[in-house]
Amino acid sequence: MLCVISFFTPFDGAKEVYAQENITISARAGLDGFCKSGTWLPVHVTVENVGADVDARVQASYKNDLNGQTIYGIDISLPATSRKEFFLYVYPDGSMRNFNVSVLDGDKTLAKTNLNVNCEFDQVTSFGVLADDPSAYNILNDIHPLIGITRVAQLKVSDLPDRTQGWAALDALIISNADSGTFTTEQKQAMELWLANGGKLFVTGGVHWQTTTAGLNDFLPIELKSTQNVTNLSALSTYTKDETLSAGGTVLATGRVQEDANILVKQDGIPLLIEKQIGFGKVFYFAADPNLQPLSNWDGMKQIYSHLLGFKSPKPVWADASWDSYQANDALATLPELSLPSFIYICCWLGVYVIVIGPVNYFFLRRIKRTELAWITVPVLVILFTSLAYISGFAYRGARPILNRIMLAQSWEGVDQAQVNALIGVYSPSRTSYTVETQDQFMLYPPQSVNANIQGNDNWLSLKNETGTSLPHVRVEIGGVQSVGTNGSMAALAALAIQHDLVLTLSDQTPMLSGTITNTGDYTISDAVLVTPSGWNVLGDLPPNKTTKVNFKLTNNSSASSTNQYTIMTTLGMDTYAYSNKDIDQRRRASFFQANTNSSSGNININSGIYLMGWVDEIPAPVGLQDQAFESIDTMLFFEKLTPALKTESGDLMLTSSIYAWESSLGDSITTTYYNLSDNGYTMRFQPSLPVHFSKVASLTLNIDSNVAPDKIQVSLWNFESNTWTLIPLKFYSTDVIEAWQYVGTDGEIRLNIDGDPNDYIEITAVNFTLMVQP
Fold this sequence. Notes:
Strand content: 35-45%
Number of helices: 10
Helix content: 10-25%
CATH class of the largest domain: Alpha Beta
Strand order of the largest sheet: 9-8-5-6-24-25-22-34
Mean pLDDT: 87
Number of strands: 45
Radius of gyration: 30 Å
Number of domains: 5
Largest sheet: 8 strands, mixed
Shape: globular
CATH superfamily of the largest domain: Class I glutamine amidotransferase (GATase) domain
């Protein structure tokens, strides 16, 4: 029996229809009918047959932006007296507000139901709560992110999908007093990749720790063994700077803390709050039970959730896989078969044609004294050369279809799977149709901004199967290209093995990154680059077993000029005007790089982290043509997030903003041009991206660069003592903040607001700071 578990709670709009053919269907969409634009929407479907055997297709369909039909389906067998549950994954476009889920036997509809959804374009921070008493976490509704709104969904274990794509709309998951021991292997694999992609998991302890953590041992930052009683939670009051926590003891679940974990709070020597980094995301373990006194009525838990879960996971600009349509189209079109013949070739061809049809023909006829035959030889030569031109053009187009597969792969240390987002260009030498199919649980979607009308009449039909999806009837014109998008995870990137001994040293000087990086994999990483918040450092080619040394300072570097896309491409030796590059492979790389690093600000923001970037052309994408021989061109832009060891020297420590992660009310930028500076300015939050512990703040120096005098800019820091904004008068070059300790909050957090008169055409070109602390 095909059985796949359901995602979020059923919502009020879920419907059930009983048809005359004894087929029953019920369905519900994820997040109570809510979906995020640009993410997959999981639809849990239950089909029951109380009649005769039926082979049917179950599909979700809606009218798309172009007034065509978008359909995602699966073919199933329904024996007599059977019931099946499974997921359909729908990729909604911007206009989708409702859709149908149907059971079909050929063209005959056996059962049908309609679902309503609310697809948001705006930023939404979504929390899932898996708890025996979800009402205890209603406080999550009061968290106010820098951008957008907050939504909370109450879940059950059976609501969690077995494909990572179905988790994309979820920002954080809280598990408390719920039995995680029933998690399936597929759920755990999906959760791991969701965490690596920036998800956050908050797990509680208390007296029910064994049930809560039974299925989460692979993720927790602690190996739990027993419980201990404490008489108070004063350390938590100190951590949040909230003294309203009432006195009273509680039970803490404790054990052996893992080496890669970071203890945020200890109570009487017992770890109370611990974090562990997994890729872009984090796992937080809270040893107490927030549902019990003295925490159940304490407002300080809101501050903890806001600090830990409300702060967006820092991601580099390429991690969102939001393609620039123009550059993506150019990358897909970079095929030799689509390029024009060289100018020299055309000139030579025309030259031969003119010479043969003119002088050669004339002297030949004159020599044989039959010049009157020119009225025959000239048309014959024209037909001959036309035929040769047609034949050579046909040969130039090739005889087989070509798949131009361009992939962006993001991997992380300690995570077995790599996230892959790809665009596939289907080139055909003749007018025909193909069936595109995927493996490895990859799912196909229409890249609306690249090419929408793929199957004719602006329709889309993809079918899910056990290994992937298929897209039938992809129509391609002679010498044309059709494009499809796909995403999923690949374990094959284990052949791209990277080892390093990088160390980030903190002292009273600028932080230093040093060590070696070795390619221990099977493939050459071409044009490798070490990417840091301070810059892009070219390493060159890394063939198998090659080691390269690293020794860089992590200086403050957030200026718009240094992070500009074209500046970085020039540094990497890429042609910023890719269409003028005669090397078609380099042109494809340049266009694909621009397509993946495009942002609204025009800058490539790293935010935080150390990455190895390179190109690999030997690893194929898991996408092909069904029952059709084809050729392929594979281009992979590869990123791996590296985690250096942290070394702190004695004495004062210098923390530059390059080792901080940030989020901004502007979205993907902390600098702005004058037309983006609103009447209320914009706000930024900074949190250390490394587990740095300090006891005292010695100084804080701001460096805000702009195109106007400092007195034209109003810069405010959040005072964590008074919970108010404090205006900081700026000076040229840098500003030392008086009594800086007031403006450094929990775990070293800093909040900054920049405002000014929009009529002054203010441009903020750099936002940096240097924090001196004592261990």
